[in-house]
Design brief:
Shape: elongated
Distance between the termini: 125 Å
Strand content: 15-25%
Structural class: alpha+beta
CATH topology of the largest domain: Helix Hairpins
């Protein structure tokens, strides 16, 4: 094959690639423009992921908390990806003004069908900006408690203490009641209720409970535990102890240890834990 034949083959390939496949808003779309647009989009997507990692690393090195750095990194990724999509459409010759008008018309038609998706996406953006929850927070939603491990564009992943991953639509964090135990920091107060028999030495009961709470691993020394005489119950004198803990994830074990130790100390001090009793009298 001589040089002339090679040139002729290249011309045929160029003609084929330059052939109009279809028209979009008066712009002729060719195979070359499609391939070029696809390459630009793939490059923009890769650049968006790279920028997310770089921004996350730079912000993390400055000592900001993980939730803040993750939110800024995700917003950077969405911004770069949006710019890439705009450049891709412009490369294909799509008129952005016409596309905006078309999008407004189509938005009305498909809005109902994509209502939930759009709602979750917008809710995800609100979560990233307002940060009612952030990665690492311990939250309770619909009676389920877990730690937030990822906030995506459509949904948020929560992992429970049973190592079960729950995928929650972002809109639920905006519309439903959410208990965020980490919102004001990683310190929270817990209460343990205790009942003792009538006739017990209440001062001694208080001393025993305070001693146990102060010596339980995981309970903070400051603020110090507090014991309250809550009420005169039907079958018991009702006490409660308020303790502060910073290990929210293992709070269940901390409270369990307090109950175990209180029961053990009560047996040593002969303090009785009563059970409900009823006295029935039968008249002759």
């Amino acid at each position: 094959m001589n040089l002339e034949n090679v040139i002729e083959v290249l011309r045929l390939i160029w003609r084929f690639c330059s052939r109009t496949l279809f028209e979009l808003q008066g712009t002729k779309i060719t195979l070359i423009s499609l391939v070029l647009g696809l390459m630009i989009f793939l490059f923009a997507r890769s650049l968006a992921k790279l920028s997310e990692r770089l921004v996350h690393r730079l912000i993390s090195d400055r000592g900001l908390e993980k939730g803040v750095s993750t939110a800024i990194a995700k917003i950077t990724r969405y911004f770069v990806l949006t710019i890439g999509v705009i450049i891709t459409l412009d490369t294909l010759g799509v008129n952005m003004k016409s596309l905006a008008a078309l999008g407004a018309v189509l938005g009305v038609g498909i809005g109902f069908g994509l209502q939930n998706i759009t709602q979750n996406f917008i809710s995800g953006i609100i979560i990233l900006f307002e940060r009612p929850v952030k990665i690492g927070d311990l939250v309770t939603l619909d009676g389920i408690t877990g730690r937030v491990v990822d906030i995506g564009s459509r949904s948020t992943r929560i992992i429970t203490q049973d190592d079960t991953t729950i995928i929650v639509p972002n809109s639920k964090f905006i519309s439903d009641n959410v208990v965020n135990q980490s919102f004001t920091g990683e310190i929270i107060r817990y209460n343990v209720n205790i009942g003792v028999a009538y006739g017990s030495d209440t001062k001694k009961v208080k001393e025993v409970i305070e001693k146990v709470a102060q010596n339980t691993p995981g309970v903070l020394k400051e603020p110090a535990p507090q014991v309250f005489f809550e009420d005169f119950g039907e079958s018991s004198l009702d006490f409660s102890v308020a303790v502060w803990a910073s290990d929210l994830w293992h709070s269940r074990k901390i409270l369990s240890d307090i109950r175990f130790d209180i029961e053990e100390e009560f047996r040593k001090e002969s303090i009785e834990i009563p059970f409900p009793q009823r006295e029935v009298r039968i008249k002759p």
